[in-house]
């Protein structure tokens, strides 16, 4: 179904239309100085698209809470929720397809970054059956994806920037369409801004911002001066969802009222000086409490409201049976082995492999919680060491795992490879084979791993009569067959 959103009109009087389906696939960036009409533009877009697509608004100033009365958005007050609660609420937002406004007003800047990151991560982490289209609007995006350092904890900055990057770079396949608005392009992280294909550029005065806006619209540098002359509510539009060439758009009227509008001028009261002195400098009553605001009311249970929107699945699932756990492990091993069929996969960082692994588990609809990084590393070492089901079923293998667990994590894979060779009476692995288990192509890395294990008293190495290497595992006394240390890896 093709849906066109009427943003207003062009200079020639024709309506300025935005293709909603194209926007969901290509994302939108809105830029302009304070007072140019960015929030008015976002409100027009949200109002006109509300009947057609689910919406989630990251609102740092509480400007968009008025959408709730007219269009039924659920307002989540971030000041009354924990980060874990917001992440869970975001997952349920996608499950039940409820449009929401995350109101960050009243939260200090670092808290805004942490709570917005938790909410966006929850949207991003929804299971595949809930990857339905969702328009994610982020006002004042330079707060959540800053181009440079900001005066907040580094952990909060990284979390927020990572969540915004995921939204703009990887959100499309999960149904997330980012619409971000910023006062200055120079303050917005480039890898976030670069993923937008549609642009609405409003009034701006700084040379660096005008130059970047002109560059994004494919205009010549001498044309950049025009951005200083744009009136309030007038934007230059370009993109597959808007227009193939830059054109001027004047945003139309909105139906809901913004709380962020500046106050108008009004005359001052005619108060005599002595009366003003008495009013301003009067002593405070002794019994008056020194509170800036009354105590807050108990927070509403947002999660209960979301759960009431539609019937939810049971919160607690019964533990898997032994047969289910074994089947899940076999499926995980099969997925990881298919990933490692690529010759270069063994040398990729574990974090990158984990992302690929989790994506394939979702595609296969594998039940249960996803593996964390330490558990994935153990599974990865098992596969790289070539351990099969027959070996895992042998009574000696738990002892090998216990001995490996006492070693540093970056040496456990080498020990498991030697243990497998000893229990299967296979030749001692070459230096290159040991290095491959450790994610390297350096024979020296394999030799240093053997030397480390020998110094730790875990193994003993000796040559046979032909100069081939034999490794004995100290403790259990298992011994590999002679092997060529300089042989190529299998």
TrEMBL record:
In its UniProt record, a GO molecular function of this protein is:
ATP binding
Q: Which UniProt keywords apply?
A: ATP-binding, Nucleotide-binding
Q: Which residues form a coiled coil?
A: none
SUPFAM superfamilies, per database record: P-loop containing nucleoside triphosphate hydrolases (SSF52540)
Q: Where is the Helicase HerA central domain?
A: 11-70
Q: Which Pfam families match?
A: DUF87
**Keyword match tRNA processing:** no
InterPro entries referenced in this protein's UniProt entry, alphabetically? ATPase_Atu1862_pred, HerA-like, HerA_central, P-loop_NTPase
Q: Which domain of life is it from?
A: Bacteria
Q: Does the keyword Lipid biosynthesis apply?
A: no
Provide the protein name: ATP-binding protein
């Amino acid at each position: 179904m093709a849906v066109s959103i009427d943003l207003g009109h062009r200079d020639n009087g024709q309506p300025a239309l935005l293709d909603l389906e194209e926007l969901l696939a290509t994302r939108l960036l809105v830029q302009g100085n304070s007072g140019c009409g960015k929030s008015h533009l976002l409100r027009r877009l949200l109002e006109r698209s509300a009947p057609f697509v689910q919406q989630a608004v990251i609102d740092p100033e509480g400007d968009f809470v008025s959408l709730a009365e007219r269009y039924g958005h659920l307002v989540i007050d971030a000041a009354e929720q924990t980060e874990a609660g917001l992440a869970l609420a975001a997952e349920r937002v996608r499950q039940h397809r409820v449009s929401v406004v995350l109101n960050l007003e009243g939260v200090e800047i670092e808290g805004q970054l942490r709570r917005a990151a938790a909410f966006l991560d929850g949207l991003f982490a929804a299971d595949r059956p809930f990857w339905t289209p969702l328009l994610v609007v982020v006002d004042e995006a330079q707060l959540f994806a800053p181009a440079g350092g900001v005066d907040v904890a580094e952990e909060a900055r990284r979390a927020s920037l990572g969540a915004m990057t995921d939204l703009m770079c990887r959100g499309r396949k999960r149904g997330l369409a980012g619409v971000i608005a910023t006062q200055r392009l120079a303050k917005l992280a480039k890898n976030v801004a670069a993923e937008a294909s549609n642009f609405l550029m409003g009034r701006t005065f700084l040379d660096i911002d005008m130059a970047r806006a002109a560059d994004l619209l494919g205009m010549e540098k001498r044309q950049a001066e025009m951005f200083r002359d744009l009136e309030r509510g007038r934007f230059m539009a370009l993109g597959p969802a808007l227009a193939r060439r830059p054109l001027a758009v004047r945003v139309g009227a909105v139906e809901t009222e913004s709380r962020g509008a500046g106050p108008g001028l009004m005359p001052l009261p005619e108060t005599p000086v002595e009366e003003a002195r008495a009013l301003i400098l009067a002593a405070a009553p002794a019994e008056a409490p020194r509170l800036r605001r009354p105590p807050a009311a108990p927070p509403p249970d947002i999660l209960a409201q979301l759960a009431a929107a539609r019937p939810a699945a049971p919160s607690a699932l019964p533990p898997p049976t032994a047969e289910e756990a074994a089947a899940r492990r076999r499926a995980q091993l099969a997925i990881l082995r298919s990933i490692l069929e690529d010759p270069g996969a063994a040398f990729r960082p574990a974090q990158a492999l984990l992302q690929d692994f989790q994506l394939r588990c979702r595609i296969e609809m594998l039940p249960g919680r996803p593996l964390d990084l330490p558990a994935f590393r153990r599974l990865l070492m098992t596969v790289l060491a070539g351990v099969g089901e027959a070996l895992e079923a042998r009574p000696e293998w738990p002892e090998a795992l216990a001995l490996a667990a006492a070693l540093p994590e970056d040496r456990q894979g080498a020990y498991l490879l030697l243990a497998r060779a000893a229990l299967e009476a296979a030749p001692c692995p070459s230096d290159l084979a040991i290095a491959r288990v450790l994610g390297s192509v350096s024979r020296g890395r394999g030799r240093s791993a053997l030397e480390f294990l020998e110094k730790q008293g875990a193994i003993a190495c000796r040559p046979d009569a032909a100069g081939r290497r034999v490794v004995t595992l100290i403790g259990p006394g298992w011994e590999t067959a002679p092997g060529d240390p300089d042989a190529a890896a299998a």
